[in-house]
Amino acid sequence: MEDIMATDRRPLEGKVALVTGGSRGIGAAIVRRLAQNGANVVFSYSASKDRAARVVEEIEALGQRGLAIRADQANAVEVQGLVRQAHEAFGRLDILVNSAGVFVTGMVGDPAVDTAGFDRQIDINVKGVVTAVRTAVPLLGDGGRIVSIGTTGADRIPFAGASDYVASKAAIAAYTRGWSRDLGSRNITVNIVQPGAINTDMNPEDGPFAATLTGLASLGRYGQPEDIAAAVAFLVGPEAGYITGATLNVDGGQSA
Q1: d(CA 177, CA 1)
Q2: Which among 237, 249, 228 is positioned nearest to 189, based on CA atoms?
Q3: Residue closest to 74 by CA, chosen among 139, 14, 129, 156
Q4: Spatial contact of 38 and 63, defined as CB atoms under 8 Å apart
């Protein structure tokens, strides 16, 4: 009984996870939760070396090994290097969580729209995820886990100006279903978590979209990054081995 309880407390003991965009917000919450569950965690960051160092300290305070690697998710070569470094550093790779993303808005037909920002959004939200998965697949052990962070906007868009962003996330939802077919024979599961309104720097609970999104949620409030981390922790854990190709909305009832 004691052995079973220990496993339950640290279900990811001995596993190695890579989380893209893990220095802040939802990504950092995922990193912390996976470390709490017993995983050694590598994560990427794009700008804040100091913030990344603090997250590594948090991982190590939990008794796990942590490694932060700077990588631009829009740069395919850097993403490939990130995945390979993660594998080399720990000698294995069991879990890939695609959390890095950007949110660029703009109305269709607006001559002032940020086309460069749109291109970078596609590079990060779509191409970066695809590159990470393609690079990781040969390195993942059979029975591995892949989870991407999407948005409920991929299914229902509650306000104007978000079409480019939600389209980028809808693409990953489609890839998720396809990858689950490709990797099923290796018992690698592939799923996507679609957050609703989550309190982050990208979409704060006192920000410009707060009134609209809070009103749409059955619970009438924003969620927290830890809510998404809990969903990811379940999907990469041993109890979710028969869940693949699935979309899990964590949105307080926004899509009800």
Answers
A1: 37
A2: 237
A3: 129
A4: no
Q: What is the pTM of this model?
A: 0.94
Q: Tell me the per-residue pLDDT of 213-228, one tens digit each, with 9 for 90 and over.
A: 899 999 999 999 999 9
Q: In the block, which residue shows the tokens 């970078």?
A: 120
**Side chain identity at 193, as an amino acid letter?**
V
DSSP character at residue 223: B
**On the CB side of 141, how many CA atoms lie within 13 Å of its CA?**
11
> Which helix (H) or strand (E) segment is 36 a member of?
helix 25-36
User: Percent of the chain, pLDDT > 90?
Assistant: 86
Q: Which residues pair with 69 in a beta bridge?
A: 44
How does 148-187 read in b/e, with b if 16+ C-beta sit within 10 Å?
bbbbbbbbeebeeebebbbbbbbbbbebbeebbeebeeee
Supply 191's token pair. Answer: 């799923």
pLDDT band per the 50, 70, 90 thresholds, residue 1 = very low
Counting residues of the chain whose pLDDT is more than 70, the rounded percentage is: 97
Distance CA 208, CA 18 (A): 32
4 has pLDDT over 50:
no
Buried b (16+ CB within 10 A) or exposed e, 27-60: bbbbbbbbbbbbbbbbbbbbeeeeebeebbebbe
- Please identify every residue annotated as catalytic: 165
